[in-house]
Amino acid sequence: MKVVTLKQIAQELNLSIATVSKALKDYPDISKKTKKLVHDLVIKLNYIPNSSAVHLRTQQSKTIGVIIPDIVHYFFTTVINGILDEAEKKGYLVIIMQSNEIFELEKKQVDLLISKGVDGILVSLSNKTNNFLHLKKIMNHSIPLVLFDKVSKVINCSKVMIDDRKAAYDVVTYLIKKGYKRIAHFRGGLDPQNSIDRFLGYKRALLDHNIAFDPSLVYICNKNSDFKDGYDTTNQLLKEHGDSVDAIFTITDVIAIGALKYLSDHKIKVPESIAVFGFSNWFMSSVITPALSTVEQHGYEIGRKASQLLLQEIKGKQKGINVKPQKIILQTELVIRDSS
Question: 6-49 has which fold?
Answer without folding.
Answer: 434 Repressor (Amino-terminal Domain) (1.10.260)
